[in-house]
Every structure is written in C-alpha cells, then in structure tokens.
Amino acid sequence: TSVIRGTYLGLEYMRKGNGGDGGVIINISSLAGLMPAAFQPVYCATKHGVIGFTRSIALAANMENYGVRLNTICPGFVNTPILQSIDKEENMGQYYSYKDEIKNMMQFYGVMDPSIIAEGLITIIEDDTLNGEVMKITASQGIHFQQYSQTPFTSSKR
C-alpha cells in the first residue's frame, strides 16, 4: 500500500490544478512484475500490481491534465547484499529449494551495478514524453522498455 499512498500523496502536492508545479513520479517494481516467479509468488503479485497501478494512474493524471507523469522502473538483479541471502535457508524459507533456479536467472539476466538504475531514473526524469511507461533494466539488455499494445478508451474524460 505504500506505493499507492505515496503516489496519491505526490499527486496531491504536485498536480498543477492544486497549486503544484507538476513533475514526475517514478515507482519501482521488478522484472518479477512482468513474469511469473514460482519462488516469490507474493513478491511477484505485488510487483505486477505496482505496474498496473502506475500505468492506470498515469492515464488518469494525463486525462485530468495534472501535469504529472508517472512511470515504473523494473530492475533485474542488482549487486546488493540481499543477493547473498538466497544461500541462506532462514532467509528463503519454503522457497529455499528454488535457490538454483534463482542463480540460473541471475546468470541469464546478469547482475548489474546500481549506477545503471540511476541512469534509468535520469532518463525518465529528463524525457518529458515518457508517461505510463515501464522501463526494464538488466545487465544483459541494459535499459529498454516493455512494449504494450495501444490502450483502448484513453482519450475521453469520464
């Protein structure tokens, strides 16, 4: 709920019709929000939710002329201490048996330095054309965007 509450709070203060100057809100999801993850079903579901919520509220903000853009970043594996936790059963619980699959995914997508995430953030902040976009960031493919078909029924107000 923190992503939803934080987004609504940001919109309240940032939107032009309410005295704000506009801007951009960037919500963080994960590659797990774009595909199933057997070893992380709840995490996966919440990350799917972040993407759906952000894309939906971006449409609403655009239709209401808030002057606020909303986008999502979906990083892959980032070189942080949490990656070491997959080798510890006490951290993984019932999903510990999936550690080899996780390691295979890490090898496939690669493990990236946090600086590439910062590069993606700067891109979204600076590019005023990006709204409702889902940026994927992986070591193997770099910064790229999820492709969606045209969303119907987005041009008219209520």
Automatic annotation (TrEMBL):
One of its GO terms (biological process) is prostaglandin metabolic process. Belongs to the short-chain dehydrogenases/reductases (SDR) family. Its EC number is 1.1.1.141, 1.1.1.232. Pfam families: adh_short. One of its GO terms (cellular component) is cytoplasm. Gene3D superfamilies: NAD(P)-binding Rossmann-like Domain (3.40.50.720). The lineage of its organism: Eukaryota, Metazoa, Chordata, Craniata, Vertebrata. PROSITE patterns: ADH_SHORT. Keywords: Fatty acid metabolism, Lipid metabolism, Oxidoreductase, Prostaglandin metabolism. This is 15-hydroxyprostaglandin dehydrogenase [NAD(+)]. It catalyses: resolvin D1 + NAD(+) = 8-oxoresolvin D1 + NADH + H(+); resolvin D2 + NAD(+) = 16-oxoresolvin D2 + NADH + H(+); (15S)-hydroxy-(5Z,8Z,11Z,13E)-eicosatetraenoate + NAD(+) = 15-oxo-(5Z,8Z,11Z,13E)-eicosatetraenoate + NADH + H(+); prostaglandin A1 + NAD(+) = 15-oxo-prostaglandin A1 + NADH + H(+). Catalyzes the NAD-dependent dehydrogenation (oxidation) of a broad array of hydroxylated polyunsaturated fatty acids (mainly eicosanoids and docosanoids, including prostaglandins, lipoxins and resolvins), yielding their corresponding keto (oxo) metabolites. Decreases the levels of the pro-proliferative prostaglandins such as prostaglandin E2 (whose activity is increased in cancer because of an increase in the expression of cyclooxygenase 2) and generates oxo-fatty acid products that can profoundly influence cell function by abrogating pro-inflammatory cytokine expression. GO terms for molecular function: 15-hydroxyicosatetraenoate dehydrogenase activity; 15-hydroxyprostaglandin dehydrogenase (NAD+) activity. The gene is Hpgd. The keyword Nucleotide-binding does not apply.
